[in-house]
Structure formats: C-alpha cells, structure tokens
Design goal:
The complex is a heterodimer of chains A (112) and B (114). Chain A has 112 residues and is mainly β. Chain A contains no helices and eleven strands. Chain B is globular. With 114 residues, chain B is mostly beta strands. The chains are: A mainly beta (112), B mainly beta (114).
C-alpha cells in the first residue's frame, strides 16, 4: 500500500494568484497522478507525472496553467496558476502501487 | 475505449436494509475494476478491487462486488446498511497497461435513513 499526504489541506485564494500543492508518498513510486474534483463532480485526471520526465497532460489541461514538478520518487507538486473562481475544486494526488491506485486526502481550494 | 457507467446518481436506503450500487463498464479487454468511497470532506478510500482473480470480491466494511463478464457489470452490495455508509461511491475501471489512467464513473451518492 501507499500512504499519501498533501499540503495544504485547504486554502482560500484571491483570483490571479497561484497556489502550489505538495504531495508526499511514504514509498518510492514511479507513477504519480494529479486529479481535479469540481464541486459535486467525479474525478478528472489533470496529468501523469513520472520521475525524470515531463508530465503528460490530459486534454483540456496545459502546463502553463498547471505546472508540475517531480523531483524524486516520493514527491511532487502541482501549481494552479493565475487562479479564477472556476479553479475552485478539490485537487488530489494519487500513486500507483502494484495493481492498486491510492489517493491522498485532497486539497480543497476556494478562489474568490 | 473504456468507460464506466454508474446507473444511479443517488440511492437512498433505510438503515439495516440491503445496499445495491450498480456499475457497468465497456471494455474490449479484461479490466481491473475498483470501488472507492468518499466520505464528506474526506479523501478517497479503496473499498475493494477485482483484478482477474475470484469474481466475487469482498471488501472492507462488509461490502462486496461481483464481476460478471457476460453482463459487463460490477455491482456493489452490502447486506445491511449502516448510517456510517452514507457517502459518495465511485466505480473505476483500469487496465494498468503502460500509462493507461483510471476511468471514473460519475459517482453514486448513498443516503442512509434512520
């Protein structure tokens, strides 16, 4: 299994600013994922981040808006840039270990 | 392409009665299937998973699900609902081949009435 922590757990931000979310895993993993869960919705994959390579973004998400770092096998960051109220969501970090995917507790972001 | 359909957006049951949350998937290959639960203001917790072993899978908190290939279904059941089961439930499909991501259903909100 894998235990994932995220910081911050929640934040309230002003439009036009940026927020960096940190994800820490208790074991080394190759694949890390970032998801967005908009209010009342299911999860949508933003990007896949493998250590040592550029993140791969899903359709509708771009690096300028959601830059991702993956400096080692236990850590990743997601930045939400130039925020607008539409970015208000829960952002979840996830890792794949064996045949199971685990999720962090999420970062609840509110943009005013 | 793979997809997953949760047939009910909201299910309401009385405490002590059975729970049935329905999930159908479309797939050309043998998938791995999962049920996750999300309690209010909490993260996602894995309830159970099917990865080509026994077709009847038992999970945590008394939940179980049966993989039926002929019906392309993976319905989640529990014999007797508890108040603490009230949450959002997600059916998820994956192949775990290469970088294939998980595909999430839209979720089913389970309400339990006292």
């Amino acid at each position: 299994s894998a235990v994932i922590s995220q910081k911050p757990s929640r934040d309230i931000c002003q439009r036009g600013t940026s927020l960096t979310i940190q994800c820490q895993v208790d074991s080394q993993v190759t694949m890390m994922f970032w998801y967005r869960q908009q209010p009342g919705q299911s999860l949508t994959l933003i990007a896949t981040a493998n250590q040592g390579s550029e993140a791969t973004y899903e359709s509708g998400f771009v690096i300028d808006k959601f830059p991702i770092s993956r400096p080692n096998l236990t850590f990743s960051t997601l930045t939400v840039s130039n925020m607008s109220p539409e970015d208000s969501s829960i952002y979840l970090c996830s890792v794949r270990a064996g045949d199971t995917q685990y999720f962090g507790p999420g970062t609840r972001l509110t943009v005013l | 392409a793979q997809s997953v359909t949760q047939l009910d957006s909201h299910v309401s049951v009385s405490e002590g009665t059975p729970v049935l949350l329905r999930c159908n998937y479309s797939s050309s290959y043998s998938p791995s299937l999962f049920w996750y639960v999300q309690h209010p203001n909490k993260g996602l917790q894995l309830l159970l998973k099917y990865t080509s072993a026994a077709t009847l899978v038992k999970g945590i908190n008394g939940f179980e699900a049966e993989f039926k290939k002929s019906e392309t279904s993976f319905h989640l059941t529990k014999p007797s609902a508890h108040m603490s089961d009230a949450a959002e439930y997600f059916c998820v499909v994956s192949y775990f081949s290469g970088n294939t991501p998980l595909v999430f259903g839209k979720g089913t909100r389970l309400s339990v009435i006292a």
